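Shapes recur. Our protein:

. . .
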Amino acid sequence: MLGTVFEVQTGITLEDAFSAWITGTTGMEDFVTEDVRYQVDEVSGHPMYRFYMSARDMARFGMLYSNEGLWQGQQIITSQWVAVSFEKYSEVPYSSRSDGHGLLWWINSAELFYGGGVGWSIYTDQTGY
């Protein structure tokens, strides 16, 4: 639902925003807008936004969050958004990797943040490792 809210409020597609605001600034080498694929969720009516990214581009994205949204001296994502993203908003008792979910990040009690989807994952903590 977050993707739907973003697109309605900004008038920008997620792939165009990600390409303009994140990939160019961080020097991602492989991402193209066609790497974002929408899959309609029949239960909620909101699409899932699947991002297909190379390992090196995912590493850059993970480092951006590990650095509280700062990339080579430029604030790309506000540190407030990163902090809010890493807050635990729901419990996930059935997961062996995490015990809660923030805003698009899985969180465990060791303050390890995990971004994951079908076939990929990014692990980060506040030290950047």
Observations:
- The longest strand covers residues 36-40.
- Helices lie at 2-10, 14-26, 55-66, 79-85.
- The CA atoms of residues 115 and 122 lie 5 Å apart.
- DSSP finds four helices and nine strands in the chain.
